[in-house]
Amino acid sequence: MSTTNADTDVTLRAWPAPNKEALTMQDLLAQVSQLATERGHLRDVTEQSLQHEIEASKHDLGLIADDSEQQDKDKPEEQLMKEKLEEIHLARIEMLKKLEFAAFHAGNAMNLVNLCLSRDPTKNLESAYTPMFKGFNIPRGSFGVDKGISLEESGRAEDITLHEDLQKRHEVVVKGSKMEALDWSTNSLLKAATELEKEVRKETKYWEEILSISGKGWSLQRTRGNTRNAPYAVHYGLPEANSRFKSRALAPLRMNKNGGIILDPNLRLKPKTLRVRIMENEQIVGTSHLPAQEELNKHDIEHSIQLSRDSLFEEELFYEMSMETRQLLGYGVELRDSTIHIATPTVIGQASQRKILIDCIDRDDQLGLQPNQPQNWLAQNIAEVLRLLLAHEHRMRLYRRSQVPPPMVDHGRQQSSPRLLRTLLAMFSHLDAVDSLHAYIHAAVKTLNSAGLDVAVEASRESLWVKLTDNIKNSENTDISATDQILQAFVKAFDATASITLPLSGVQQESIVIATRTYIGQPVFGSEHKLTLPPSLAKVLTLEPDQPRQFKFSSTRDAASYLDWILALYVAHDFLANEYSGRSSKRSEDPRLIILSKGSGKGRVKEDEIVIELDKGELKAKITSNAQSDTEAIRDSHTWNGAQAQPSLKDKVKSWIG
Amino acid sequence: MHELLLYGQVPLARHEQVLKILAGVAAMQPRRVRERRIIYKPTKQPEEPGAHLSRRGGTQNVAGKPVKQIGTKDLFYQHLVQKLSDNDFGHDNGRPLSAEVKPGQEPKWSLEFYDLLDTGDRGVSIRQTSSISLLSGNPHAWMVAAGPHQFVSEYYIEGHRFVHGNVVIFLHRILHEPGVRSLETAPKTHPPPFAALQPLDPSGAYILEAKVRVHDFNQTTVLDNAVREIAAFQDQMKGCVELALPDRLALDPRVKWKSPNPPSAMRPR
C-alpha cells in the first residue's frame, strides 16, 4: 500500500483480526465481562444452553437463506441486477424525500425561532430566514399572517349577502355614532354658551362694581403680575403717608364665583378711629365722636374702602403721635397702655387737673356710647385739629418734595416728624400764658385808670392770626393752598404782643412791650415773655443807656410780679415825682417817694413818704410820716381795685399832703 | 457745586405723553417754568498761560466775581437767567431791567456759570457750575461793568420741571424771537408777547434734561450715590426717552479768542 497516492488506489480490506490464539489476560477478562453482560452470569451458561442457541441460530439463518435462494432461482441473473438497481434508486429517492422533508421542517422551525427573535430590533436575522420565507416579506415580529380573499372580491352568494348585511350594519353604526357626536357637540355648545353667559354676567358684575368704585373717585390700578382673579386693585391710601402705612394702602379687587368683589383681608380689618377724651379729676368729662359720614350701605365695597382709608389715616395719626411722645416727656406727655396722656397746663385759679387722653380704638366700639358730656366740644375740636394737622403735613410733604433739592451732601437730610402734639401743646401753653398775662395786665391797667392814671393797653393773642386773612389775600405763593397757609401759621412759633402805654414825663407817650413767644422746640421750649422797657422808663430804673432793656421770663407769674413792681415804681418815681417835682426825692429802689412839704411850724419841713404797692390788680397807696425814724406809722392808706368813682391818686396824695 | 447731566430728546408729538409719564414717575404735578437767558461774552484779553503766577500783589481783580477765578486762562461765556411768569410777557411798562426783590421773596435774576464738561467717564456728564442770585440793581448794567462783558444774545426757555428724589427733571425747549438779533446790543427790557416767540428747533421738539447736583465733587460716596440715582432714572425711562451723554465739546462754554490784529474783524456786531 503506497502512501503517496492514497486517493487513486484504495484497497478495501478488513481490519486485520487480532491474533485470537494469543489472548492476553486483559483481553480475556474483558471478553469474560462482556459475555457476562450479554448472557448473564457464567454459572447459568451451560454447554446445553449454548448448544441450543447454536441450533436456533442455524435454523434462522437457514430459513432466510432458503427464501432468497428460491427467488434467485426464479429470475435470471440480469433481471436480478436490474431489480437491485431499481431498488437502490427507490431507496435513494425515498431517502432524498425524507431529507428534504426534514430540511423543510427544520427550516420552518428556524424561521419560527427567527420570527420570534425578530421582535428585538437590535438583532439582524434577515440572513437566517429560509429563502422561501424571505420571499413572503413578512414584517418583523409579526404573527398570524393570513392571506385570503376579501368579502367584496369573493363571488359566492352567501358571501355577498354577508357583505351586504355587514355593510348595512356598518351604515347603521355610522349613523348612530354620527348622531351621538352631534348630540355631544350640541351639549357642549350649550354648555359653552351657558358658561359664556355666566362669564359675561360675572364680568359685567365685576366691571359694574369696579366702575362704581372708580366712579366714587377711588384710584384703580392694575395689579402687578396681572393675577387672573384680581386684574385691578384699589389704591385708597394717601400718597404722602408715612412709608410704614403707604404699603398698606393697596387692596386687590378679587372676583368671586358670581363676579362680585371679594373683600381683601386688608379691607376686612377692623376699622380704627382716634378717640380723644378729656379727663378732669380722674373723671371723663368729654369724648370726641366719630367723624361725620354719609350713610352708606354697610356691605358696600365702597363703604369698606372708605373705612379702610379712614382707619389707615387715623392709625398713622396715632403712630406719629406716639413717636412724638418720646421727645415730649418733659412736657408731661406720656404713652401708657397705648393711650397718650397729655397733662394740660393748669390755668391760674382753676384747681382741677385736666388731662387729655388720646387712643386709637376699634371704630365699632365707640358707636352707641355718646353721653352728653360738657367737654365733648373740646375733645372733638382736638381730634379735628390733629387730623387737620396730619393732612396739612401730607400736603407739605408733597410741597417740599417738589421743590428743587439742594445739592447732595454726605449726610442725608433728616426727615422731621410732623408737629402734631407739639402744636397742640404749644397752643395750650401759649393761650394759657397769654390769657393769664393779659388778664393780669387788663386788671392792672383798669386799676391804674381808676386811680386817675392815663394808661392804655393794646394786646393781641397772636400777631400772625390777627392779619392772617390779609396775609393769605396778599400771598404770592401759589404753590401752597390757602388752607395750608392757615395751618402753617399754627405750626410755626406763636407770637403775642401786649403794650402798655404810659404817660411819661417826657413829651411822648411810651409803652412797655411784652412779647410772648411759644414754641415747643429750639430755642424757647415752651412759652416765654419778653419785656421791653421804653428808654424813659429805663431812666427810672437808673439803667445805663447801653444796658439791655429787655427781660425774659419763662413763667407768667414772674412776669406779672415784675410788671407789678415796675408799674408801682413808675407810679412812685415818675408819675408822682413829676407831680411834685422839686419837692420829692427818691431814697431807695423801692416804689417809695418822699415828698417835702411845709410843716405846721415855721421853717419846719414835713417829710411824707408815699408807698405805692401794686399787687394782683390792686393799687395801694400809703402815707407814712417821719420817714427817718425806723418805726413807720401808717397815717393813711387807700386801695384802688378798679371800681369806678374813686378819687384819683393825685387828689388823694394832695389831700394827704395838703 | 457740580452737576451730573443726561439729555434726551422728545419730539413734539410725544411731549404730552412724556409729560404724563414723568408726572407718574415723579408722583407730582409738573411745574411750569419760563426763563430768559442772556449770554455775555467777556471782552478782556485772556491771560497768557502761567501769567497769573508771575503777577505780584494782584489787586487788579474785580471783586465779587468768584466765577472768574475758576479758569485760569480760559474765558467763559456767562449766562444771566431771569425767571419769568406768564404775566411778564408782552407787558412793557417802560422801566429798565431791575433785579429788585422784596425780602423773603425768591430772587428773579441769577448769574450762572457752566464749566467745560468733566473728562471722567462715569456714564454721565459732570460739570462744575456756580449760580449767584442777584437781589437788586440793573443786571445788564452790572454785567457790562463787571468783566467787562459784551452782550451776545438772549433766548427763552419754556418747559416743565419735576423733582424725583434728587433728580431734577426738566422737559423744555428753547424759544427765540425771530428777527435780526445781531443788531441788538442790549437785552430787551421786557420780553415780547409769548406768542411771538418761536422754537429754535422748527419741529418744536423738546429736550429732557436730568440733573443731580452734588455739593462736593471729591466725596466719592456722595458722587457714587448721585451717579447711581441718575442712572436709575435713566434705566427707568428706557423705552420712553433715551437719555444719553451729550458730546463733551458740544457744550463747550469757552470763548474762542481771536487775536485783535485786524481790529475791524474783532467786533462783528
TrEMBL record, chain A:
Compositional bias ranges of the Basic and acidic residues kind: 649-658
Annotated GO biological process: regulation of transcription by RNA polymerase II
GO CC annotation: core mediator complex; mediator complex
Subcellular location: Nucleus
Keyword set includes Translocase: no
Keywords: Activator, Nucleus, Transcription, Transcription regulation
GO molecular function, one term: transcription coregulator activity
Annotated spans, Disordered: 58-77, 628-658
Function: Component of the Mediator complex, a coactivator involved in the regulated transcription of nearly all RNA polymerase II-dependent genes. Mediator functions as a bridge to convey information from gene-specific regulatory proteins to the basal RNA polymerase II transcription machinery. Mediator is recruited to promoters by direct interactions with regulatory proteins and serves as a scaffold for the assembly of a functional preinitiation complex with RNA polymerase II and the general transcription factors.
Family that this chain belongs to: Belongs to the Mediator complex subunit 17 family.
Known partners and oligomeric status: Component of the Mediator complex.
Name the record gives this protein: Mediator of RNA polymerase II transcription subunit 17
From TrEMBL, chain B:
Signal peptide from the UniProt entry: none
Localization (cell): Nucleus
Keyword terms: Activator, Nucleus, Transcription, Transcription regulation
Major location category of this protein: nucleus
Domain of life: Eukaryota
Gene Ontology CC annotations of this record: core mediator complex; mediator complex
Alphabetical list of Pfam families matching this protein: Med18
InterPro entries tied to this protein: Mediator_Med18
GO biological process, one term: regulation of transcription by RNA polymerase II
Annotated spans, Disordered: 43-64
Annotated GO MF terms: transcription coregulator activity
Family note: Belongs to the Mediator complex subunit 18 family.
Assembly mode: Component of the Mediator complex.
Function (record text): Component of the Mediator complex, a coactivator involved in the regulated transcription of nearly all RNA polymerase II-dependent genes. Mediator functions as a bridge to convey information from gene-specific regulatory proteins to the basal RNA polymerase II transcription machinery. Mediator is recruited to promoters by direct interactions with regulatory proteins and serves as a scaffold for the assembly of a functional preinitiation complex with RNA polymerase II and the general transcription factors.
Stated name of the protein: Mediator of RNA polymerase II transcription subunit 18
Origin species: Periconia macrospinosa
Gene: MED18
